[in-house]
Write a structure and sequence with these properties.
The complex is a heterodimer of chains A (459) and B (96). With 459 residues, chain A is an alpha/beta fold. In chain A, 59% of the residues lie in helices and 7% in strands. The longest helix of chain A has 28 residues. Chain B has 96 residues and is mainly alpha-helical. The chains are: A alpha/beta (459), B mainly alpha (96).
């Protein structure tokens, strides 16, 4: 029994701990234990690798660990909950870049020994390269350093086809002749460029899918790198992460009634035609005072948050409003659409941050049957996910998308800045319904004004 | 020959991943994703070997050290941010 065998044995234990970590994420009560188990598995894997005797010098390792750990801790503690989507995008990119560097080192030192090796190396740098730049663009869009909308330009398809063709042709040449260092670098460069052009035409509300797909890729890269350096632990973990990204992508696409292919390659903007509805109906506004009177008499209220809630940072004000309503004997629930926000689960995290009990957070399928018996639905910063046109208007681009049936509530309040359309650029007929009242203004200020009404009403 | 064993591991791990992750509720999808980021930092295992090998050029030193830094960033950042998020998910009874 040698040290190499022992290291691999520890890898098995680490894999088990990672698997249990994910299993415990199945419930909020056991999730933290899962995270701890998973971190323990990681520590064991690192220690086993350090002890395995592959390393000669430790000075560079130490420098790398210190830099990475400091920055990681700093970012993890500083990031606000509204910034989680961009933080996740950043982590996707860093993981993929690390994989690419490991592949590159392996190639630089050992070259590609056989056919399997050159194929996996090729796949690894292509997927790794496009994940790095794709994540960087996603990060830029989510942190608003880049325009969040879809960026389209003439010849975009042609350019993408050219890049794909280049990556494929050079790939075959490289696999047949893996000693060509120049090809290795060009393929890496093309893949990096491809990642940019893959993500810039995807905008706003499609970001949950982009993040999930990139998550999957970052797992696949870890996996292919595992094949390159013959490391079983990388393959296991890469497969777990890859499966995670695929599942989340499927859930997100189902929630938008679109295929992954359509999200990634068919820019949504192209489908949208201005649905010119005949008569111009008038949306009815309501003052905060009148809204308060209705809420005061409501027995059940469902709050439907969307990305606008995150933008206005209104989660704490919303929790306050919810508490006042409950004190008033009202039943308060929160209805969360799977694609509300910019990433899977975004709204849940924001509301949890505001100290809202998680058993009040309802999934779409659970809340819809209850909507008819709801007195007031308050829509905060959501638009397309409550548009009834998705149910009946076959000409609507969002037809068929599952929505939260806010319109079935007795009264619907819509908190909105203006009558502007949502991401999909379509009019929301809900705003013109007889039971809908618009409350214009900043979501946070409106909610705070409602809270103030409740406060003054107590005296 | 070794390739077939590696593929074996890959296929079974994918099934394991699907089985485990499809049971995570949408409530926890954001922490799930940051957890995935953290375990994806397992690439640190490869990075350590790359950075600790006999230095034969400046390039490998730069690549290896950067890989270690990036992977550590994922591990530390991923686990800490997951922990921060999970701490926030509370039921009413425990908060009051």
């Amino acid at each position: 029994m040698n040290i190499e065998f022992l290291a691999n044995f520890v890898y098995i234990i680490s894999s088990i701990l990672f698997a249990f970590g994910l299993k415990f994420l199945g419930s909020p009560t056991s999730a933290r234990k899962g995270n701890l188990l998973s971190a323990t598995g990681m520590l064991l894997a690192v220690l086993a690798t350090l002890a395995s005797g592959h390393m000669i010098s430790f000075q560079w390792i130490l420098i790398g660990v210190i830099i990475g750990a400091t920055l990681g801790a700093l970012v993890a503690f500083k990031a606000a909950m509204t910034q989680m989507p961009e933080m996740i995008a950043l982590l996707h990119g860093c993981g993929a870049l690390a994989s690419v560097f490991v592949d590159w080192t392996a190639y630089h030192v050992h070259g590609a020994s056989d056919l399997t090796n050159s194929i996996t190396l090729y796949l690894s740098i292509v997927i790794g390269g496009l994940t790095v730049t794709g994540s960087a663009i996603a990060w830029g869009k989510l942190s608003e350093k880049l325009p969040g909308k879809a960026i389209l330009f003439a010849g975009q398809r042609l350019l993408n086809l050219g890049l794909i063709a280049g990556i494929l042709i050079l790939g075959v040449m490289f696999i047949l002749n893996p000693a060509r260092y120049d090809l290795f670098l060009i393929i890496l460069g093309l893949s990096l460029a491809f990642g940019i052009f893959l993500v810039i035409p995807i905008g706003g509300a499609d970001m949950p899918v982009v993040i999930s797909v990139l998550n999957s890729y970052s797992g696949v890269v870890a996996c292919t790198t595992g094949f390159v350096i013959h490391n079983t632990l990388l393959i296991v973990v890469g497969a777990l992460v890859g499966a995670n990204g695929i599942i989340l992508s499927i859930i997100m696409c189902k929630a938008m009634n679109r295929s992954i292919f359509n999200v990634i390659f068919g820019a949504f903007g192209a489908v949208v035609k201005k649905s010119a509805s005949g008569e111009k109906k008038e949306a009815k506004g309501i003052s905060v005072e009148d809204a308060f009177l209705i809420l005061e008499n409501a027995k059940s209220v469902v709050i439907i948050p969307g990305y606008g809630l995150a933008v206005a940072q209104a989660q704490h004000a919303v929790r306050e409003l919810g508490e006042f309503l409950e004190k008033n004997g009202c039943d308060v629930k929160y209805a969360i659409h799977p694609v509300a926000g910019r990433m899977p689960g975004h709204m849940n995290v924001l509301l949890a941050e505001a100290n809202i009990s998680y058993d009040q957070l309802m999934e779409m399928d659970a809340i819809n049957p209850l909507m008819e018996n709801t007195d007031v639905a308050i829509i905060i910063g959501a638009n397309d996910v409550v548009n009834p046109a998705a149910r009946h208007d076959k000409s609507s681009p969002i037809y068929g998308m599952p929505i939260i049936n806010a319109d079935k509530a007795k009264t619907v309040f819509v908190l909105k800045r203006s009558m502007a359309t949502g991401f999909a650029g379509i009019e929301n007929e809900l705003f013109y319904y007889d039971n809908t009242r618009m409350i214009f203004g900043d979501a946070k200020q409106t909610v705070q004004a409602l809270v103030a009404e409740f406060k003054s009403g107590q005296h | 020959m070794e390739l077939i064993y590696l593929l074996f591991i890959l296929v079974l791990s994918v099934f394991l991943g699907f089985a485990l992750i499809s049971r995570v509720p949408p409530l926890l999808h954001t922490p799930l994703m940051s957890e995935a980021n953290a375990i994806c930092g397992i690439i640190i295992v490869g990075a350590l070997i790359a950075a600790g090998a006999e230095a034969n050029s400046t390039l490998t030193i730069i690549l290896g050290t950067s890989a270690v830094a990036l992977a550590t960033f994922n591990v530390v950042g991923g686990y800490l941010v997951t922990e921060r998020m999970l701490k926030m998910f509370k039921k009413k009874d425990t908060t009051k």
